[in-house]
Amino acid sequence: MRHTQAARPHRVAVLVLAGAKPLDVGIPAQVFTTRASMPYEVRVCGAAPGPVSGGDGLSYLVEHGLEALAWADLVFVPGYRFPDREDPPQPVLDALIAAHHRGARLAAISTGAFALAATGLLDGKRATTHWHYARALAAKHPGVKVDENVLFVDEGDVLTSAGAASGIDLCLHILRGALGVAASNHAARRLVAAPYRSGGQAQYLPRSVPEPRGERFAATREWALGRLDEPLTLELLAQHAGVSTRTFSRRFVEETGYTPMQWVMRARVDTARELLERSERAVERIAADVGLGTGANLRRHFQRILGTSPIEYRRTFTRGS
């Protein structure tokens, strides 16, 4: 993992604002919960310690005030009700700005993007929010480049996500960058969540007849993950799913944000990442194990997708370092 033996836990603050949505609060608190496999410490805070009136019939009793933002490396702002009506109190905005200037990353879930936008830190940057509020965010903060057709946006020091479920995708994305794909996949299994979905996936797709989405091809994806070392074609995947290749391709993109073969390549690269993190296998062996054939192929796809080489990646995620 990407931490030294003497490294302190990563510090995560979850800022609960008035009207906070319970799922949005719970996602980062649960994903980054302190445990042996997770070098994180989480503090839930508000504008001041004490009770915070939430949304959807729930309220919160938070232990920490805004001093938690001065402590944190990563600050989450969960979504809250009526974000387009008024901004959070100025001391909250000042604390967010100070945390950012100090080097903390700020991450918003759903309508939490309105709080980040009110600080001015999203001006000139891409951001997203729940599709229902995307136009309101653009109207209230015209300096923000609002993209309502994605699950999350990573601008480096500030990150935003759409509705509650995409908050899980954002958290897993952050974990993957900080601790590697093995830790992210472990967290996804614990949450019974998809290990990766493209941030560029559309939030919703208008339909004349609604139909269940998200799990239709889960069995086929699981089947493919167990056969990455074998030839996997669009025809084979569609045959396993029991639909035509055209239908499979269209609906697969709706579910995952990737074409089927893009998803297979991403799965192969991510499996290679996990093997590089957790084993001493040679690059040529790993390439064969994940279905990429040769070390040259693995290096080419690693560079294209991740912007680095397998050797450099392994050096970054050295076991016990």
Assign a percent range to the helix content.
40-55%
Distance from first to last alpha carbon: 7 Å
Percent strand equals: 5-15%
> How large is the radius of gyration?
21 Å
How many DSSP E strands? Answer: 10
Widest beta sheet: strand line-up: 2-1-5-6-10-9
Description:
With 321 residues, the chain is α/β, with parallel strands linked by helices. The protein has helices at 22-31, 67-71, 90-102, 112-118, 134-140, 164-179, 181-191, 218-225, 234-241, 245-256, 260-278, 283-289, 295-306, 310-316, and strands at 10-15, 40-45, 50-53, 59-62, 74-77, 105-109, 126-127, 145-146, 152-154, 158-161. A hairpin with a 3-residue loop joins strand 9 (152-154) and strand 10. Helix 1 runs parallel beside helix 6 and helix 11 crosses helix 14. It is globular and about 55 Å long.
Describe the secondary-structure layout.
Layout (H helix, E strand, L loop, with lengths): L9 E6 L6 H10 L8 E6 L4 E4 L5 E4 L4 H5 L2 E4 L12 H13 L2 E5 L2 H7 L7 E2 L6 H7 L4 E2 L5 E3 L3 E4 L2 H16 L1 H11 L26 H8 L8 H8 L3 H12 L3 H19 L4 H7 L5 H12 L3 H7 L5
Parallel strand pairs: 1-2, 1-5, 5-6, 6-10, 7-8
Antiparallel strand pairs: 3-4, 9-10
In short:
Helix content is 44%, strand content 12%. The protein is of the alpha/beta class and 321 residues long.
Question: Top keywords for this entry?
Answer:
44% helix, 10 strands, alpha/beta, six-stranded mixed β-sheet, 321 residues
